[in-house]
C-alpha cells in the first residue's frame, strides 16, 4: 500500500486490512516513509523494494520509483489509483487499474483497466478471469497439439510403411472443422474457479507451453496409438502397415475402423486436458 497519509495512519489501515500481519511487522523495510525510500540509491531501492508492504508520506515520484524498482527485479506490477498524480505510476506499471467513478480522466487514460464500480474487490475478479483465460489457452493448445501430432504420426508411419495414408484429406478436414471446433469450445469456455487463485502467478519469462504440457502430450499421444494398435489388432484389421486387410475383410472396412478408432480416442485428450488444471499439473511446469 502506497499512500500519502502519515505512517501512523497507514500502519493502522494496513493492520486492519491484513497487509501487515502484526505490530511486529510494522518496522522497516516493511513499513517505510516515502522520503526515506527516495533517499536510497538505486541499488538500495532494488534491494528493499521487494520487502516493502506499506509506504507512507509518499509522493507520486516515490510511487513511480517503487514501480520501476519492482519491474527491474523481475516482478509483474499492477497499480491502482484514481488521481492525476497517480498517472505516472499507472502508466509505468505492467497493468494500471483506474477507478471508473472517482478516477480522473488523466488516470483513466494512463491505465489499462478501468474498475467501473470503484470496488477494490473487483481486482480479484480481474485476476481470476485473467488466470482462467490463460489456463484455457494452455488447455486448448495441449489438445490441439495432441490431435495434430497424432494425425501426423499415423499418416507418416503409414505412408512410409505402405505408401498409403489411413486418414484422407476429407477426413482430416472433417476432424479439424467439426470435432476440434466442438472440443475447442468445450475447453475455451471453462468458467473461472476459486482454485485458480491458489496457483502461483505466471512469471514474465515462463513459456506458454510448459514442460508438463509436453509430458502430457507424449502420454496422451502414446495412449492414442497404443489403444489404436490394440483395437486394430483385436479386430483383425491391419490398420498400421497395409490396406490389405487380414481375415479377408474389405479395405474400406479397415479404413472406416481406423478412422473411428482415431476419433474415439480423441475423447481422452479432451477430458484429460479439461481436468489437468484441477490436478495442478500445469503450475509445476
UniProtKB/TrEMBL annotation:
GO MF term (any one): P-type calcium transporter activity
* NCBIfam families per record: ATPase_P-type (TIGR01494)
Superkingdom as given in the UniProt entry: Eukaryota
The segment(s) forming the Cation-transporting P-type ATPase C-terminal domain are 165-221
* SUPFAM superfamilies reported in the protein's UniProt record: HAD-like
Q: Which Pfam families match?
A: Cation_ATPase_C
Naturally occurring in which organism (per UniProt): Ambrosia artemisiifolia
What name appears for this protein in its UniProt entry?
Cation-transporting P-type ATPase C-terminal domain-containing protein
Provide the transmembrane region boundaries.
140-160, 172-189
Asked if the keyword Transmembrane belongs to this entry, the reply reads yes
Amino acid at each position: 500500500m502506497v499512500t500519502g497519509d502519515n505512517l501512523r495512519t497507514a500502519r493502522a489501515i494496513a493492520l486492519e486490512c491484513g497487509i501487515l500481519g502484526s505490530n511486529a511487522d510494522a518496522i522497516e523495510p516493511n513499513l517505510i516513509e516515502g522520503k526515506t525510500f527516495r533517499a536510497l540509491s538505486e541499488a538500495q531501492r532494488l534491494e528493499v523494494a521487494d520487502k516493502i508492504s506499506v509506504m507512507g508520506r509518499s509522493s507520486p515520484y516515490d510511487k513511480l520509483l517503487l514501480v520501476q524498482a519492482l519491474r527491474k527485479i523481475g516482478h509483474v506490477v499492477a497499480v491502482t489509483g484514481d488521481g492525476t498524480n497517480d498517472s505516472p505510476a499507472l502508466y509505468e506499471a505492467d497493468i494500471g487499474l483506474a477507478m471508473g467513478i472517482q478516477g480522473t480522466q488523466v488516470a483513466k487514460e494512463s491505465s489499462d483497466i478501468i474498475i467501473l464500480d470503484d470496488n477494490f474487490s473487483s481486482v480479484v475478479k480481474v485476476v481470476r478471469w485473467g488466470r482462467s483465460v490463460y489456463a484455457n489457452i494452455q488447455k486448448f493448445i495441449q489438445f490441439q497439439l495432441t490431435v495434430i501430432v497424432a494425425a501426423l504420426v499415423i499418416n507418416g508411419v503409414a505412408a512410409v510403411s505402405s505408401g498409403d495414408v489411413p486418414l484422407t484429406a476429407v477426413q482430416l478436414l472433417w476432424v479439424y472443422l467439426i470435432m476440434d471446433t466442438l472440443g475447442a469450445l468445450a475447453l475455451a469456455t471453462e468458467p473461472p474457479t476459486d482454485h485458480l487463485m491458489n496457483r502461483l502467478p505466471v512469471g514474465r519469462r515462463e513459456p506458454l507451453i510448459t514442460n508438463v504440457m509436453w509430458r502430457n502430450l507424449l502420454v496422451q499421444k502414446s495412449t492414442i496409438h497404443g489403444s489404436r494398435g490394440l483395437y486394430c489388432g483385436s479386430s483383425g484389421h491391419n490398420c498400421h502397415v497395409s490396406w490389405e486387410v487380414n481375415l479377408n475383410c474389405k479395405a474400406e472396412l479397415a479404413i472406416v475402423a481406423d478412422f473411428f478408432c482415431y476419433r474415439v480416442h480423441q475423447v481422452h485428450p479432451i477430458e484429460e486436458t479439461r481436468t489437468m488444471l484441477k490436478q495442478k499439473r500445469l503450475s509445476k511446469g
